[in-house]
Every structure is written in C-alpha cells, then in structure tokens.
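Input for the complex:
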Amino acid sequence: MNDATLARPPSDAAARLGLWVLIAVITVLFLQVIQAYAVRSDSIDWQRLPALPLLGWNTLTLLLASIALQAAATHQRRRIALRAAGLFACAFLIGQLVAWQQMRSAGFLVAGNPANSFFYLLTGMHGVHVLGGLIAWGLLMIRARQGADITSGTRLCARYWHFLLLVWLLLYSVLFLIPPATLQVICGGG
Amino acid sequence: MAYPEHEHAPHSFWTRYVWSQDHKVIAVQYTITAIAVGLVALVLSNLMRLQIGFPGRFAFIDANHYYQFVTMHGMIMVIYLLTALFLGGFGNYLIPLMVGARDMVFPFLNMLSYWMYLLAVVVLMGSFFVPGGPTGAGWTLYPPQAILPGTPGSGGGIVLMLVSLAIFIVAATMGGLNYVTTVLQARTRGMTLMRLPLTVWGILVATIMALLAFPALFVSAVMMLFDKLLGTSFFMPAVVSMGQALAYKGGSPILFQHLFWFFGHPEVYIVALPAFGIVSDLISTHARKNIFGYRMMVWAIVIIGVLSFVVWAHHMYVSGMNPWFGFFFATTTLVIAVPTAIKVYNWLLTLWRGDIHLTVPMLFAIGFVSTFVIGGLTGLFLGNVSTDMPLSNTYFVVAHFHMVMGVSPILAIFGGIYHWYPKVTGRMMDDTLGKLHFWVTFVGSYAIYFPMHYLGILGMPRRYYAYDNYAFIPPSAQQLNAFITVAALVVGAFQLVFLYNLARSAFNGKPSGSNPWGSASLEWQTPENPPGHGNWGPALPEVHRWPYDYSVPGAEADFLPQTSTSPLGGDDAKPDKDTP
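Predicted:
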C-alpha cells in the first residue's frame, strides 16, 4: 500500500534514485573541469606533472575501500568489512594529502603552472567527495551500533564508493596518462 | 492503517516553524527570504535608474556604486530571487501536494537546503559591508576585470560573491535531489506522469536542468576563487594592471565565458519553465477550460529543456568565434522558438471560448503571455549573429531580457502567489489591492521596457554610468530615460501594495474555504485547508484523471477533481470521450 511505502525513512527505490541523481550531478561537475582542462592544456605554458608513485598506492587503497564495501554489501562479515572500508578511505585521503606535500616539496606549486593548478583542483574536489562519503559511512556506523537495519544503506554506500573509484581512475588518466592532444580531440578542441 | 506521521507532528515553535522539515514550512521560508532579498535588488534597480534618469543629481551614486548596484541587482534577481522562489518556494510547496505525497522524500536534506540557501544570502549581503563593497563586475563576473583592482569590489566583494554562489549551488542541489526524486518516486496511486499538472512538469524539468547546469557555475566560481586567492591562471591572461605586470599568464577568459553561459543560458529556462507550468495551470483553472494540447505542452517543456543546453554561445557572438559555431548556435537558438510558440498558441487556444474569470491570478497569467511574447520576439533579433552584433551592447538587450526573463517570470510568480495564497493561509488576498498591483506593475513594466527598445536601436550603450559627450545620442533620449526612471520608481513603490496585501491578508483576509477557485488539481483536495502535517490525513488520495477536467459536459459541477471517480471526462490521452 502506498501509505506504507511513503512512510519515513525514504523507500529503497527513492534512496537509490536519489543517489543516481547525485552521481549524475557529480559526473557533470567533474566533466566540466575536465573540459576546462582540455581547453586550457592547449597553451604553450602547459607543463605536465610527473605521476608520483604514491598516487599509485593511493589508487590501491581506494580500490580496497571499494572492495571492502562491496563485501559488506553482500553480507560477508559486514561489521569488519565496513570498518576496513572506512580505514582504507581514510588512508586514501591521508595519502592524497601526503601527495600534495610531495608535489609541493618537488617545486610543483599550485600557481606555478596551469597543469599544477588543475592537479590540486581535481584531487581536492575528489577528496571533498570522498570526505562526504566518509560522513555517510560514519552515519551508517552509528545506525549499525544502534542496531538498525543497514542493508540498503551499505549497498548505497558501496555504489557511491565504486563511483568515486571510477572518477579517480578517470582523473588519474586525464592528469597522467592521456596526452593533452588526444584529450583535446575527445573534448572537441578548444 | 497506520499513519505514523501524525504522531511525529512537531509541536514546539522551534521545530515547527524554524528547524522544520515540513515541505510547506520550508516553502514559506524560501519564499519570504527570496522576497526579502528581491526587495534589496528592487531598491538597487531604482537607485541605478535615478542615476540614468537624472544623472549627477544624486551625488552618492558615483560610478563605482552604480556598477555595484547593476551587478548585485542582476545576480540577486536571477539566482537568489527567481531561481530560489520557483524551485525552493513553489517547488517545495506544490510538488508533494500535487503528486499526492506526504512530504518530500528526504525531508532533512530539504531543511538543510533552505539553511544553506539562507547562508548563501547572508554571505552575499555581507559583501555590502566589506571594505570596497560588493563586486561591480557585472552579473556575468567576466575575468579578468572581475578580480583586478580598478573594478569596484575586486577584493572581498568578489570573493564573497563567488563563495555565496558556491553555497547556493550546494543548496539548490540538495533541493533538486528532493524535487526530482519526489516527483518520480512518491506519486500517489493513479498519479501517472501524464496526469501531473504542468506546474509539476515545468518545475521537474527546470530542476533537472538546474542539477546539470549549476555545476558549470560552481566550477567557474571555484576556479575564479583559485585565480583570485591562490594566484593560478585558469582564466587570467598575462595582464598589465594599473601599470604593473601581474604574475598571471596564459589563462583563458573565453573559457570562463563558456562555462558561465553553459550555466547561464539554461538558467533562463530554469526560471521560464516553472513560469510556463504555473501560467498553464492558472489559465486553465480561471478559464474553466481544459488545457489545450496537454501532451504537446509536456513535450514542449522537455524539448525546450534539452535545446537550452546547446545554445549558450549566443551570449558570446561579440566575443568572437568560428563563423560555423555562430551559425550552429544561431540555428539552435532560433529553433527554440518552435516549442515556445506551441506553448503560446496552446495558451491562447485554452483561453479561446473559455469562461474567462478575470481574477487577479488570471490577470497576471495573461499579462505573462503578453510580456513573454514581446520578449520572445526580440529574442529572434538577438539570436541572429548579424543583428546581434550591433544590438548586443545596447539597451535593446536590456529591454529584451528584462521582458522575457525579468518581468515575465515575476508576473508568473505574482499570479502563483495570488492563486495559491488561500492554500497556504486559508485566506484570500484582497482583490482590489491585487488588481491595483497588477495594473500598475503590468502597464508600468511596458512603460519601463518598451521605450528601451528604441533607445537600443538608437545605439545607446548599456552598462554605461553616464552618457555625456556622445554626439549620436540626441537630447530626447535623456527625456525618455527620465520617463523610464519615473515609471520604474512608481512600479517599485507599488510593490509595497503587494507586500501589504501579503502580510495583512494572512490575518485579516476573507476565509477562503477549501477550494476557492474550483480547481481540479490534487493540491486543492486535501482534507484540511491549509493542509496539516502529512498533508492527507489518514489515507493518501487516489487519482483517477488528469488535472484539467473543467466544464465537462454532463457533469454536475463545472469541474471534476482529480480524485473524482466519475465516468465523465478523463485524461487528455483518451480520444473521443463520449458524452451522454
């Protein structure tokens, strides 16, 4: 009956749709910056950054967080998997901050070159979204402690994390793998 | 049947009216805040008209202040008044009631959305009080001038503006998630998508557009903040400012323009589509006639929404571009005239042989059609590259966009407020004052903006603080400007009549009863008026028809509410309805 499905908290279907809409918005947000990146990279002062080895390790921690959440969502030792996911996500964020430090001490300052500026901007934006995910994760942990059913919440959390992983892989490719000229062709030139 | 909401209805003043999660209260909060900040923008516009109409007479309006007034007027009106009021105000109030839901799907997020919006407004208003004052960069905030010394408010003013915009976008996204999810997931039994009132369609599509367009503004605001505060060169080219070479180099101001207008043009339709929807519902209800071509109206809304994402560069013809780009964007721009014209024809055909009641909401709705057609027609001039070039920097553009996205949406907002006021308060607004408000606003708007078309064709440049020593501007232009200023002051002053009516009627208005306009749509069929917490009492309503069953042949009343089980009337989709 409708009355039951409309009682709070929002139905699973509504929460799922809400998350999809959010993912769409965040996707557009990052695509806009990547488009700007493509346009801006077509200038003579552009000097691409070297990929730090640390960023590879960070990618691994984010991947592990995603896997742990997936495990939690599919009921395998949920508590432990959830905690591990949080831990990995925190490790990722700390790793990113250390990467910023390393970049800075290597002389790649935020205003030094537009490529540097985009590196800090994109990683920063991504980090903020991971932080948002950690808040959702924290709320989930609180609800779990209160003994509430967190099955669907965990599933949504896992989906969001997979999305963040995909965004990170895309950003990593744009920043370090795809040649700017190729990117300009993909994005339709400046 | 359990009805959990009722037990959880908030009781204390604070949870009920301040930290409320009820969509109706949040809607009122949004509306009052938007109107308050809109009043500031109205005063700013009058101040700037004082300078143009009577140059030099008011010593406190120097060039810097003038540009600050222009900038803040534009930004407040477009974002903090129109967008917030249509989506946060009307969207919040009407969506759950019109689709038959107890509330928004995520009430907490909804509350958060309002408080973020309020924070954005406070930050923006704060910029009036920082050293150097608010930004005077023009509402488009084009770099490099927006953040360089010499532009008023290039210190704290522009920073607060950008921060405020970013906060607003977070607020709008929180609200938008709710509106989309609620429309798609929380409709009551029988409420199919093709039975939604056009108001909901307009708000839904506008919300989706806002969700997809605002990120571009967010990105440009954040990147400009980087340029301003961290010294990056996203948008800033190498530049010599006040005789000093700055550290910026290689940035692209055009990139900012693309990002800004990728948001900016959809923004026009973000405020137009809800207006389309509201006007459709007002016209149908007050002409006691079903809306003509409901499905066509829905598709026109969707098509306009899609098209508006591929026209943005028509704001940049004078920035220079590949002629093929200009050709492309001129074509897409002019194509929008087709679905828009369909809507106008359908409004006229709804009115045609209708039982037209010239109530205050109806007057505003018809006024909207008039101003929108005028504003839309001048859009055809400006959509063409060759005619846009000479007109672009003149008052012709000011006249165009004020008619089409200033006056028109605000008339729809007024119409909507007069129409749904009895729903919100249970009382009617005063009719005489309402008509006075309408006629002064409507005629006054024409008095303000119609002459501006002539000034524009004459070549009078917009954005200028003063017009001394321009040989091609005849003295008569100054007289016309003085006339426009007087008209603007009168229209501005008469908005106080509206505010008085709004405030006074809440306590002294005539009790309205549950459905004063005899409206068929679902929001008027609640068990209580104004609706209580949870909207629908113990049981959700069941919907059996579209919301436009007016003057159905054979029916007893002149309308059949959406909840009626009568075999008469029915959806637009049912062809050849047999009448007994």
